Amino acid sequence: MIRDAGAGDWPAIHPFFREIVARGHSYAFPEDLSLEQARGWWMESPPGRTVVAVDGATILGSAKMGPNRPGRGAHVATASFMVDPRHAGRGVGRALGEHVVAWARAAGYRSIQFNAVVETNEVAVRLWRSLGFEVLTTVPEAFDHPDYGLVGLHVMFLNLSASDQPARSGSQG
After folding, report:
1. Mean pLDDT, range 32-50, rounded to an integer
2. Is pLDDT above 60 for 13?
3. Sign of CA dihedral 5, 83, 11, 49
4. Which of 27, 79, 90, 153 has the most crowded CB, counting CB atoms within 10 A?
5. Which residues, including other chains, have CB under 8 Å from residue 11's CB and lie 6 or more apart?
6. Which residues share a beta bridge with 39?
């Protein structure tokens, strides 16, 4: 089940947020953020939204989403995803990805742009491609990977306004 994240969920999200950021394989967030500092990097305020994937009371993963840019860029959505490594391989990332695509479409966004998908994050790249995203470009040596050194960051894109897409309803945001 995927539901909106509440303030009380952050203490359960933070441990895997901290672990994923510390691994250094997929996010360029600052390391060693306090609980409260890290909250500001993950828990979105409107018009953004943060959700959690849960199994009962257990939080399996989380996603944050919203406009990629304010103002004249607000018709393009963006999102970030984290799955607790203890729950990897259960389809949580796919469920979160499908949820975000459906949310963006329903909210009236014309597309989704991921600004920085680490090219060596093959699981994520494969997932996003399977959901229809394409790599528009790769910024060379834009991410300092702890195992591979300087690697590229993909800019990935999904067109939600294509004629083969279901009609959108609702207003943006």
Report:
1. 93
2. yes
3. negative
4. 79
5. 35
6. none
